[in-house]
Amino acid sequence: MSTDDKNRAIAAAILPLVGGAENISSVAHCMTRLRLGLRDRSLVQDQALKALPSVMGVVEDDTYQIVLGPGTVARVTPEFEALVAEAPTPVHSADELAAQGAAIKAAQKAKNATPFKLFLRKIANIFVPLIPALIGCGIIAGLNGLLINLGWLPGITPALAAIASGFMALIAVFVGFNTAKEFGGTPILGGAVASIIVFAGVAKITVFGQTLSPGQGGVLGALGAAVLAVYVEKWCRRWVPESLDVLVTPTLTVLVSGLATIFGLMFVAGEISQGIGDFATWLLAHAGAGAGFLLGGLFLPLVMLGLHQALIPIHTTLIEQQGFTVLLPILAMAGAGQVGAAMAVYRKLPRNGSIRRTIKSALPAGFLGVGEPLIYGVSLPLGRPFITACVGGAFGGGFIGLFNMLGDQVGSTAIGPSGWALFPLLDGNKGLGETIAIYAGGLLVGYVVGFLATYFFGFSKELIEEFNVDTEAGTEAETVTATPSAGTPAPAPAATPEAAPAKV
After folding, report:
1. Which terminal residue of the chain has fewer beta carbons within 10 Å of its beta carbon, N or C?
2. Are residues 339 and 447 in contact, defined by beta-carbon separation less than 8 angstroms?
3. Per residue in 368-422, pLDDT tens?
């Protein structure tokens, strides 16, 4: 037997003992081990695998590792990969696609566990609890604006304005409270330090030749002040005697952090916040179509990488400064592209009832801006449709960005919702009707381009052959075979399930 035949024989002996090609999600090797990603660990026949002459042992870690020895593993791995690739592709149902999507999501979550991404996750944990209040106050603000424009209920509109604006006037306090909680400090101390930013008395203080303004630095200043308070508090906990801790620690925490906030953080954070607002306005005014195209097209990958969390403080800063964020309607177009792609998948797979039912059940949520069921249950496991969904989002974002270039700003008074759920939160520099029309036009472009891109470019011939089949036909065929008609001899039973697969 030649060396190549020997290596292929080793690979062929291993494959059925690890559950067959369908059970393999990834193949790699190191100096001595064949490393396999498994879909179902229970399918592995450990004892039979260890009994193979070529196998020196097995190790379980993040992958299933088969010890073959140096030199051998490098030659067996390509043969093993070839056998997996040559295996017949199984018919996939919606449940199997969902399982693949869940595996992708779990793997991505594991990759996101870097210090930077963990920091971004902390930032998200600070702001996400504020979203319900932002949404409620944003909708009330929109309703109040509509009543003012129509001249209705003039005696009620001042009260609605107070209700809508009260939370935003004190949002820095809530950010400080959540920040201290997330970074391991005493939440109320973080809120106390952050409240300095919104205190009216800071208008009597001059820093770097400028008089401070209440609210200067906004949520970014509150974030920095609370983080500083946490570090001061932790330092005090280490060095202040326990008998004095209850008096000294909170006093020093508020005093030191408060002075640093007044004489440094408020000014610096104010400049940064102003720069963010000016840059967003300039970018969309001068390169709106291109910027919208990139933001709309890249948002789904950013979500997968966890980097979208870095945008939350930016959204909140824009809402503080301008009353709305111009970025969110553009980013929401990614969901529109996803919906269009899902509808194309529905049309391209008329025989796969399982996937079509999944799409029909997930589409209503997709229209309302909840795209995760469609992403992880349909487009991402299929591959190409995820890319074409991004194309749809890019064109939708470019559409809204183009109108920003023409002077029509389309913004959202809160973060969180997207899709159709964003309509009650829309605001801009023009009339509400015009703002709604532009946003609706962007959604329509995202739907149409996402559909067309997926329908014409989202499926290879192999993908169609694999998925455009009746996933329930196999069950029906087995039922007919197992129940022969009277007078017809029953077929001999197969020795193993693998020996007699159901034909579809």
Report:
1. N
2. yes
3. 888 878 888 888 888 899 999 999 999 999 999 999 999 999 999 988 889 999 9
**Euclidean distance between CA atoms 297 and 19, whole angstroms:** 38
Catalytic residue among 30, 137, 236, 390: 30
Distance, CA of 268 to CA of 282 (rounded, Å): 21
**Model confidence pLDDT, tens digit, residues 172-217:** 999 999 999 999 999 999 999 999 999 999 999 999 888 999 999 9
47 has a pLDDT exceeding 70: yes
What gap in Å lies between CA 490 and CA 492, rounded to an integer?
A: 6
Q: Are 7 and 76 in contact (CB under 8 A)?
A: yes
Task: Please name the residues in contact with 355: beta carbons below 8 A apart, sequence gap of 6 or more.
Answer: 92, 93, 94, 97, 345, 346, 349, 378, 467, 471
Q: What is the DSSP letter of 265?
A: I
Read off the tokens for 317: 């800063």
Q: Which two tokens stand for residue 396?
A: 């939708």
172, 281, 179: which is closest to 219 by C-alpha? 172
Can you give the three-state secondary structure of 317-384, one letter per residue? HHHHHHCCECHHHHHCHHHHHHHHHHHHHHHHCCCCHHHHHHHHHHHHHHHCCCCHHHHHHHHHHHCH
- Rounded-to-integer distance, Cα 358 and Cα 342, Å: 10
Whether 30 is a known active-site residue: answer yes
The one-letter amino acid at 154: P
Q: In which element (H, E) is residue 34 found? A: strand 33-38
- Measure CA of the first residue to CA of the last residue in the chain; give whole Å: 38
Q: Collapsing DSSP states into helix, strand and coil, what is residue 424?
A: helix
CA distances from 353 to 261, 359, 414 (A): 60, 10, 38
Q: What is the pLDDT of residues 448-500, one digit of tens each?
A: 999 999 999 999 888 888 888 875 544 433 333 333 433 333 333 333 333 33
What one-character-per-residue DSSP string does 95-107 give?
Answer: HHHHHHHHHHHHH
